[in-house]
């Protein structure tokens, strides 16, 4: 099962920066290692999109949404990561963009 997520370029950059903390995580148990493996795959996929966006960003593409295709378990992990990281964010605009993405993922996963 695949989930297609359409994001504005700015939102994709915000999400990639938000889940960057997963790279500093250490796993100790077998379950944590498998969960971390999925989280690292999701983070790598979104980092790749962010690099692509930064390289090709111009005035005309600023409003054009990009498509991110995730497998079901990757979309579920992204939702969990965003919910976890949402608590520490103070900027209201960034919180709204992340919450909007969480809501979109929640609808598509249901």
Task: Describe this structure in a few short sentences.
This protein is mainly alpha-helical and 110 residues long. The chain is built from four helices and two strands.
Descriptive report:
- The protein has four helices and two strands.
- By secondary structure, the chain is mainly α.
- Helix 1 runs antiparallel to helix 2 and helix 3 runs antiparallel to helix 4.
- It is globular.
- Measured between the Cα atoms of the first and last residue, the distance is 12 Å
The side-by-side strand order for the widest beta sheet comes to 1-2
The average pLDDT is: 90
Structural category:
mainly alpha
Q: What proportion strand?
A: 5-15%
Looking at this protein, list some descriptive labels.
110 residues, two-stranded antiparallel sheet, 4 helices, 2 strands, globular
Topology:
Blueprint: E1 2-7, H1 9-18, H2 30-56, E2 66-71, H3 72-86, H4 92-109
Antiparallel strand pairs: 1-2
Helix pairs in contact: 1-2, 2-3, 3-4
């Amino acid at each position: 099962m695949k989930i297609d997520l359409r994001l504005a370029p700015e939102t994709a950059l915000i999400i990639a920066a938000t889940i960057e903390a997963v790279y500093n995580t250490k796993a100790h148990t077998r379950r944590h290692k498998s969960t971390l493996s999925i989280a690292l795959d999701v983070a790598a996929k979104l980092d790749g999109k962010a690099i692509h966006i930064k390289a090709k960003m111009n005035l005309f593409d600023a409003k054009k949404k990009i498509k991110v295709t995730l497998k079901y378990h990757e979309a579920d992990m992204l939702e969990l990561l965003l919910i976890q990281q949402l608590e520490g964010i103070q900027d209201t605009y960034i919180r709204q963009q992340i919450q909007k993405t969480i809501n979109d993922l929640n609808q598509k996963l249901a």
